[in-house]
Design a protein that fits this description.
Blueprint lengths: L1 H8 L2 H19 L7 H26 L7 H17 L4 H24 L5 H20 L4 E2 L3 H8 L1 E2 L3 E2 H19 L1 H11 L1 H6 L4 H27 L1 E2 L10 H8 L11 H20 L4 H33 L1
Antiparallel strand pairs: 1-4, 2-3
Length: 324
């Protein structure tokens, strides 16, 4: 029993959950009870939806040893294509399929540059961020496009029992599905093996390049869904879109214990990281910090997450060497 309790308290998930509780307690006091108000919890759940899809896409890539800095631009392009197609008279589901395909092509482009042209991941994906953002501007003529579809507007704005946003429910269903894929399927285990050692996994019969292609396309599709949910909530596809959120998915994933070096992590930890990021940002607004300070503190939070990830990676290496 003591050994089981010790393992639990030494786990990343326990540490992250404790950190989330500490943040909630501190900011609940500083905000004079506003943080845990009914209205504010609804607001947090609404914002969690967008970050969840970004964290899923980016987190799966991080576990495989890659990353994607184009998700902000791709997440702007997808909703713009969606709104443009709806404005042209297409049904929302056809428009969404077209938007997903357009974003999947961006992910395919990233995978081609990384796997066959041997571009460094950050260079390839930054280039794709610029390309996708530029295409979004060309489609819209530099203007926002209203999205007047009753189904999408219902999904984006309505709540179950007037409390739980439908977008949050969709995001949690997606998170559970990916958690099952990661832990219960051969493909999910392959992702972690490739992230741990790509060359060794190749020699063991896995196909790192094929997995990379799937995960880059998946990340772009997740960005499309994230941007589309935000678009459905505000009923407009904006030229800004998710362009300011290129690091949001990475921050949430790393905060959730997904290693930047690949090979470790899970969706439950990512969920806690998502809540840490959203509660932290929401709380800073409640206590009256300006947007400038919020930007600085978000960067500090990412830096702390990276330092913690580096410390944990060094500890894993030390234990591996000691075991030998």
């Amino acid at each position: 029993m003591k050994a089981k309790l010790r393992r639990m308290t030494n786990s990343k998930l326990f540490t992250l959950t404790l950190l989330l509780i500490v943040i909630i307690v501190i900011f609940e006091i500083l905000s004079k009870g506003k943080l845990l108000s009914f209205k504010n919890i609804r607001s947090i759940l609404q914002s969690v939806s967008v970050v969840t899809f970004l964290a899923i896409g980016c987190g799966m890539l991080l576990m495989s040893g890659n990353t994607d800095l184009s998700l902000g631009g791709v997440g702007t392009l997808g909703p713009m294509v969606l709104a443009f197609c709806i404005a042209a008279g297409l049904p929302w589901y056809v428009a969404l399929i077209i938007a997903l395909i357009s974003c999947a092509l961006c992910g395919l482009g990233n995978a081609l540059m990384v796997n066959y042209l041997n571009f460094p991941t950050f260079i390839a994906t930054i280039a794709m961020a610029s390309i996708s953002q530029g295409i979004a501007y060309l489609i819209s003529g530099g203007k926002n496009i209203d999205m007047k579809d009753p189904t999408l507007n219902f999904i984006g704005t309505k709540r179950l029992f007037d409390f739980i946003p439908y977008t949050f429910i969709i995001a949690m269903v997606a998170l559970v599905i990916y958690a099952i894929i990661l832990r219960k399927t051969k493909f999910g285990r392959s992702i972690l093996l490739v992230g741990g050692n790509a060359e060794a996994s190749r020699l063991a019969g896995l196909k790192p390049k094929k997995i990379s292609f799937i995960l880059f396309v998946n990340a772009s599709c997740m960005a499309c869904l994230a941007g589309s949910l935000m678009c459905a909530r505000v009923k407009t596809a904006t030229t800004a879109g998710l362009s300011g959120s290129q690091f949001t998915g990475i921050t949430a994933a790393i905060l959730g214990g997904i290693s930047f070096g690949g090979g470790t992590g899970g969706m439950m930890g990512a969920l806690v990281g998502i809540f840490i990021l959203n509660v932290f940002n929401n709380a800073m607004q409640l206590v009256g910090l300006s947007s400038y300070y919020q930007t600085v503190m978000s960067g500090v939070l990412l830096l702390v997450a990276l330092i913690y990830d580096k410390i944990m990676e060094n500890n894993r290496m030390h234990r591996a060497i000691t075991a030998k």
